[in-house]
Amino acid sequence: MELLDHYLESVKKHLPWQRQDDIIAELRANLESQLEEKEEALGRPLTQAEAEEWLKQLGAPIQVAAGYQPQQYLIGPAFYPTYRYVLKLACSWATIIYAIVTVVQVFATQNPSNTALLDAVLHLPWVLMMAAAWVTLIFAAIEFTVARGYVVLPAFCSPSPNWTPGSLPPLTHDAAAGKKPRSFAQAVAEVVFGILFLGWLLLIPQHPWLLMGPGAYWLKTSPFELAPVWVPFFWCLVAMNILQNGWNIEALISGRWQRPQPLKQAVFKVLGLLPAAIILTAPHQVVVLLRHPETAQMRDRLQLDAINHYFHWSTEVICAIIVLQLVWSAVQLTLNHYRKRAAAMQ
Amino acid sequence: MTLAENVFENLRLELRRGCLTLAVLAQLREERYGYTLRKALADDGLVIDESTLYPLLRRLEAQGLLASQWREEEKRNKRFYRLTPDGEKIFAQLFEEWQAINAAINASITASMKTTTSNL
Predict the structure, then answer these.
(1) Is B54's Cβ below 8 Å from some Cβ in A?
(2) pTM exceeds 0.90, yes or no
(3) DSSP, residue by residue, B15-70
């Protein structure tokens, strides 16, 4: 039957190539038996319309072939929760970094305009799409390699089957208040994303476009250059990041990721003051210099003063915010300690 | 299709999925090829689409529950399937599980019907 041949040929196109002939031979045998029985019951061959109706009932060739495909995921259920978390994290960081770079770019230009700001805002979806695309690509690669057994994840990357209810973490304040507790996926994502962030940070001196995008070209050709104070600032950030990654990895391996880590949070809040302090103590509050001071125009000198002034002022604001956060944390810790003592005495 | 119909259809398909595997394993204690298996299931009241049944046979074979061989019958080459020893063992376990689930559901429904009747 010619129509059946056409149908099977179309199914074949969508089948896995290694098993195409075998599957089609089996399908043909089954369908021909079915056809034969139909024709026997009718006492005549099927008409064109009847044959078309029968094949239509079997389903579209692509659907029939899909049943024979192995179940495949771009990102499977095992990695999906981590993927979602990292995606959120990546999009948030991309937005923050892009916002900082945009503000610096807009205010550093000789004639800041609303159009430049609008352009930057309209460009944001593209930045987010790029961040999402990279995260998706990385997770798809992990799924591909792990699902095919090319890579075996270390034991600490999969939830241990040897857990006991006693090893569960104590209820945190957030969990007791009905908020979501920190998940294993979040802990793994923090480590993975932390290492990726460190790699990205270390590449910035050689490839400033990673931080500033097209602004790196502007910096290269502008009459300004960064002051030497940025070198200790940069290495301070790197050291803090290494410390944080080490802390996260240690917590993950030892299983302490489940417990709240108030000490870690406090240490990093205090350490957060260090880079800001480096900038604040820059000689003569200079963070940007003229590339060629001897030939610089008056307009550039005035702009340089403004940049240094606003930078110093914003760093002071950031420092004040961090100090306020520290004070608030200290007050909360003291109050909690006082409440626990009072409860223990009752 | 309304939302309720859609929900019902999804739940029905979910419910059928596991049952179909059990029904296929039950039928293949005796050797059959795809079309006769489909007919046997339909005669017992379980109609399965070709596009569901034939790939299912392949998957069960890949899992080692079925063995197949090509053989000529009525001047046509056909692929015949039957349970492997592992398949027989797993079928027996699944059947036991099925009976336990069935009994539990029946018991729950009977109990709830008694409560409803006594309240009336």
Answers:
(1) yes
(2) no
(3) HHHHHHHHHHHHHTTS-EEHHHHHHHHHHTT----HHHHHHHHHHHHHTTSEEEEE
